[in-house]
From TrEMBL:
GO molecular function terms listed in the Swiss-Prot or TrEMBL record: acyltransferase activity, transferring groups other than amino-acyl groups
Residue ranges annotated for the N-acetyltransferase domain, each copy included: 4-144
Name the UniProt record assigns to this protein: N-acetyltransferase domain-containing protein
Top-rank taxon, per record: Bacteria
Amino acid sequence: MYIVTIEGLPYDWLGSLQELHAHVFDGAKLTVEKLAKKEGLLCLLAVEDASVIGFKLGYPHPDGVFYSWLGGVHVTKRGQGIASQLMKKQHEHIKTLGFDKVRTYGRNTFKTMLITNLKHGFDIASTFVDEMGRHKIIFEKSID
């Protein structure tokens, strides 16, 4: 397994990324249009045998904090530390881009990701209910 870091749209990996996104998020579509709207998009892809088995996507938020937007690992590859490796690489890369803080949102339905965020030094900054009525937890971390 190796990690590919792409600033901008991951054209060469798009099909594999979209397939994994649908797998992780119950069939939800990740369109090129949605990705293209994210100015400053950063894509980290865990690749094995020419397939994306994990991903971490993010972009700069208007308040100057890097927003770690979406991520996931194929169900057959979970528990191997892939999400942690992607997170570590993302934080290393955004530091080189000049960011000193990263933010992400979590939901109780994805408990393993909540735990991963806490294990990697994120603090709970706030909570809110989104437009679909889902409770979300806002995590923030200073990048050392």
